[in-house]
Write a structure and sequence with these properties.
This protein is α/β, with parallel strands linked by helices. The chain has one domain (14-165): Zincin-like (2-Layer Sandwich), CATH 3.30.2010.10. 38% of the residues lie in helices and 19% in strands. The protein contains four helices and seven strands, in the order ββββαβββααα. It has helices at residues 54-87, 123-135, 144-153, 158-165, and strands at residues 14-16, 21-26, 33-37, 40-45, 93-97, 104-106, 111-115. A four-stranded mixed β-sheet has the order 1-2-4-3, covered by helices on one side. The chain has a three-stranded mixed β-sheet with strand order 5-7-6, with helices on one face. A hairpin with a 4-residue loop joins strand 6 (104-106) and strand 7. The radius of gyration is 18 Å and the shape is elongated. The N and C termini lie close together (5 Å).
């Protein structure tokens, strides 16, 4: 998750971005459960949940990560497909992963991988990452032709968008 420091997951925890809202609430059952729709998830916790146990925090962190990945799988491929069609940059398939090292990648077979943590970014930066990866379907390196294409696709904003993207981290 994109935070500058570890954030305890409890009933005050939430993630609110332009893509998703994740909140925790006390539920009525004896176990954890979720209610979700695209872009919104509520994680219900049993009454009296002890959020201070390290094992509970580790488990909750994994649950939140799974929720982010599920939401990314619902939301990101459709946007990638729209951009692909708009710019005539076809790709073969897209996979959503939990990478904290890369926002995205594109293979020589035109398969695109996107990190679920893209959902933590503003939409214009998500689009920039997607255009970056789609550009690799034509130019498989970061040479001058690649940068010219990406700069054209971003209306001359490649350098400023790249600089803005660097201000975001993928660490938790």
């Amino acid at each position: 998750m994109v935070h500058t420091a570890y954030k305890k997951i409890d009933l005050q925890f939430s993630i609110h971005t332009e893509w998703i809202d994740i909140t925790l609430q006390t539920g009525i059952r004896k176990d954890f459960y979720t209610r979700s729709s695209p872009g919104q998830v509520i994680l219900f916790c049993p009454p009296g949940t002890d959020f201070y146990q390290p094992e509970r925090q580790q488990w909750l962190y994994k649950v939140v990560e799974r929720i982010i990945r599920q939401q990314a799988t619902l939301l990101l491929p459709a946007r990638l497909q729209q951009l692909s069609l708009k710019h005539n940059l076809p790709f073969k398939q897209v996979k959503i992963n939990v990478s904290k090292g890369r926002w995205g990648s594109c293979s020589s077979h035109k398969n695109i991988n996107l990190s679920c943590y893209l959902l933590m970014l503003p939409p214009h930066l998500v689009e920039f990452v997607m255009l970056h990866e789609l550009s690799h379907t034509i130019e498989m390196n970061h040479g001058p032709a690649f940068h010219a294409l990406l700069n054209k696709l971003t209306d001359g904003q490649e350098k400023s968008l790249q600089k803005e993207l660097r201000t975001f981290t993928m660490s938790s």
